[in-house]
Design brief:
The protein has 13 helices and two strands. With 268 residues, the chain is mostly helical. Strands 1-2 form a two-stranded antiparallel sheet. Helix 3 packs antiparallel against helix 4 and helix 3 packs antiparallel against helix 7. It is globular. The two termini are 28 Å apart.
């Protein structure tokens, strides 16, 4: 449980780092430069949400982050409002489904035991196993959004103003830590190493490109409170950590008093 809590804390910091790095706005900038139509922008919204879900490992956090950014931009590009919202929701679930930093992926991997050797499944291997199921479904989903995602476009002036408010070219540089985390995790390394390298690479890229500075990571407000990527990332995962420790303690008590083994034998 302590191991899982440590992973959650790193995942929280990494999630905040990617949000502050404005990677979604960078991807929106690409969409605006390619002059995407309604169906394409709807499909693009799904892809961006999925990538952000992979990067942060949280479906709820992806929805909260992407709706105020992607939704007005997608509608401004001509996407159907209903399908634009659906694209964000489904993209968030797609990304979270096989993100190596997702809490569900981590817990599921820890609960899967090898058949021919001791120990739990590696997170990178779990991600690889899920890819063959998720990728075909994601391709079909993209095709459906492409066909049915068009809607009434906003007038040119409104659309231009929306894109100016929600596009940010330097945010593309923050794709680097995303690919670092994915690459390290799928190479068989531990999730600790993956997140650590992702945070370090993100901090380096953000600092070099001017997207982030030291105050974005850790600072003290006038009221004496801590703020920044690191404190807010830890704080965002604190309820999950408490729940994990509480759940582990309950399971430990059930095992200690023989209830788990008794239930298993009766079910068998």
């Amino acid at each position: 449980n302590a191991l899982v809590v440590g992973i959650f804390l790193l995942a929280g910091i990494y999630s905040k780092l990617m949000g502050m790095g404005r990677v979604a706005e960078g991807l929106i900038w690409i969409g605006s430069k390619l002059h995407m139509g309604g169906g394409i922008s709807c499909m693009f919204t799904y892809i961006i949400s999925a990538l952000f879900g992979i990067a942060t490992g949280t479906s709820f956090g992806t929805v909260v982050t992407m709706v105020p950014v992607l939704y007005p931009a997608a509608v401004g590009l001509g996407a159907n409002p209903i399908f634009a919202a659906a694209a964000i929701l489904s993209g968030a679930v797609t990304g979270d489904h096989f993100a190596p930093v997702s809490d569900t992926t981590i817990i599921v991997a820890s609960s899967q035991k090898y058949r021919r050797k001791t120990g739990s499944a590696e997170i990178g291997e779990v991600v690889k196993a899920r890819l063959r199921h998720v990728i075909p479904i994601a391709i079909i989903t993209c095709a459906l959004y492409l066909v049915f995602g068009s809607g009434a476009a906003l007038d040119a002036e409104t659309a231009e103003r929306v894109l100016q408010d929600f596009s940010y070219q330097p945010g593309l540089f923050m794709l680097v830590p995303l690919f670092v985390v994915l690459g390290v995790a799928m190479s068989g390394r531990t999730i600790f190493e993956s997140l650590t390298w992702g945070i370090l690479s993100g901090a380096l890229v953000g600092s070099v490109t001017g997207i982030l500075d030291i105050s974005n990571f850790f600072c003290l407000t006038e009221a004496g409170n801590l703020s920044g990527i690191i404190p807010s990332g830890v704080q965002s995962m604190f309820p999950v950590c408490v729940a994990t420790l509480t759940f582990g303690g309950n399971i430990g008590l059930l095992k200690q008093y023989g209830l788990i083994s008794d239930m298993t034998s009766r079910l068998s």
